[in-house]
Amino acid sequence: MAYWIVVVDDEPLSLTNAKNLLREQNMRVSCLRSGKDLLEFMKTHEPDLVLLDILMPDLDGFETYRALRQYEEREGKPQTPVIFVTGEDNSEAERRGLKAGASDFIHKPFHKDILIKRINNTIVNSKTIETLTEEATLDKLTGFLNKASGTEKVSGMIKKAEGALMILDLDNFKLVNDLYGHDMGDRVLVAFAKVVRLNCRADDVVCRIGGDEFMGFFPDLTRREAATSLTERLNEQLLAEAEILMGADHGIPLGISIGIVINSGTTGEFQILFQYADSALYEVKRNGKHGCRIYDPQMTIAEGPEDLDQELSNVIRIMSERGEGKGAMLLGQEAFSWNYRFIVRYLERFGGEAIRLLFYLSSKEKGVIFSEMVSEFGNVLKNTLRKSDIIHQWQQNRFFVVLVLAEEETTPEVVGRIMKAWSRTGYKDRIDISYTASSLRKELYESKE
Q1: Residue 46: its pLDDT value, please?
Q2: What does DSSP say about strands 163-171 and 255-263: parallel, antiparallel, or unpaired?
Q3: What CA–CA distance (Å, rounded) separates 193 from 199?
Q4: Any residues with CB less than 8 A from the CB of 201 and at least 6 apart, and which?
Q5: Fewer CB under 10 Å: which end of the chain, C or N?
Q6: 132 — alpha (psi -120 to 50), left (phi > 0) or beta?
Q7: Domain 4-137 adopts which CATH fold?
Q8: Residues 6+ apart with CB under 8 A from 55
Q9: pLDDT value of residue 249
């Protein structure tokens, strides 16, 4: 990789010498004549390293270094590695430079091998530290800042700028994990992160503060209309992504609720503003989800029977949003286990029958193609069986099916419908399917004897 080196020296001969040595190593070189030139240059460029001469008129190397670090801190930019350069054999200057925080110190005239080795070592060490710092500050799944680093970043921003502090919570996300498994849950979170990025500006900051909870600060966003528009876009785009991942009939009322507080000054206290945004989020959750609310000091916690009636109406409406869907439910292991236990308890109490089927798939084809065929068989089961039936993919090539309130003699007919639907997929001759069945009623009867 060709590193980009900036050489700052008021002596033309030293600049030429350094430039020739570095370009021999295929490094990109920019030459500047003063500390002021460097500070102006850094506003629009991000080199890998600066070679900074100490003895210069106007701003010397030490003064330039301090001004550079102040600028980087003020703008929230990473520190560029700096190696001090001097033509004097002065141990005090070297001690002072290293104490100030410079990455290294080198004497003129340059020794080619020493110069190149120190530059390479300094850049490699700097990038290693940068990588470790990034890993410590970022949420690996979404790529957003994690809670600690995000809180620190936002706390500083609200002291400098007006804007909206938002808490974003995914509605009904637990159902994704329960019904489709945690791998799908992770994919939905990644899709949510993509949607948020598409709707963020360069100065907006978003961090993940919990499993499905996020926080963001949006400078200069102070109008209710803008917040409402952002919320609508996020909900629409997240729903579109969810349909791509889980199918249009996934049946989960996935969405985003956002609590907002407007920071109208530059002296906001983060903890207080966060509590206000959290209160606003609570109001969104109480009133149907999938929307936003800007904090109002008049917000109060509802009490009394009338509020309980409203709460019941809200719960019923939210649960009804799951929709009808199509066919049987394909469930993750945890959700399937809970449903299966409920079916067993129901039949023990009220009677009835349930048939259990285990399908086994095998093929000479392996890898991605086999996985695609297995996934397609799962879709066939889902679309062929009734809404009251449940399915779980047990291991890579097995499906466990429970036909609720079905009679044992109807099993061949059900399997026949499945095989007929499978024959229309084009995979009929590329995969072998076998199955076995058992009666839950017989098992319950025998356990009582």
Answers
A1: 92
A2: antiparallel
A3: 10
A4: 218
A5: C
A6: alpha
A7: Rossmann fold (3.40.50)
A8: 61, 86, 87, 88
A9: 77
Instruction: Name the fold adopted by 147-320.
Output: Alpha-Beta Plaits (3.30.70)
0.70 cut: is pTM over it?
no
Write out the two tokens for 5.
């080196």
Which residue in the block uniquely carries the two structure tokens 């710092």? 133
Query: What is the dihedral sign for C-alpha 365, 366, 367, 373?
Result: positive
Please report where in the chains the tokens 């609590």 appear, as a residue: 259
CA distances from 165 to 57, 112, 261, 283, 389 (A): 46, 53, 5, 16, 45
Report the alpha-carbon distance of residue 428 to residue 150 in Å, rounded.
52
Quote the strand ranges of 163-254, DSSP E: 163-171, 205-208, 213-219
What local confidence, expressed as pLDDT, does residue 303 receive?
47
Low-confidence ranges of the chain (pLDDT < 70): 1, 90, 131-136, 265-268, 298-307, 311, 314-326, 447-449
- Three-state SS string across 296-362, please? CCCCCCCCCHHHHHHHHHHHHHHHHCCCCCCCCEECCHHHHHHHHHHHHHHHHHHCCCEEEEEEEEE
Strand partners, 361: 433
By CB atoms closer than 10 A (0-12, 13-18, 19+), residue 13 is exposed
Residues facing 170 on adjacent strands: 256
| Cβ(167)–Cβ(277) below 8 Å | yes
412 close to 351: Cβ distance less than 8 angstroms: no
Cβ 29 vs Cβ 51: under 8 Å: no
Q: Give me the pLDDT at residue 256, please.
A: 94
Q: Which residues contact 438 (CB under 8 A, 6 or more apart)?
A: 355, 356
pLDDT at 22: 93
Which option is the CATH number for 329-448: 3.40.50.150, 1.10.486.10, 3.30.70.270, 3.20.20.140? 3.30.70.270
Copy the structure tokens of residue 43: 């506003």
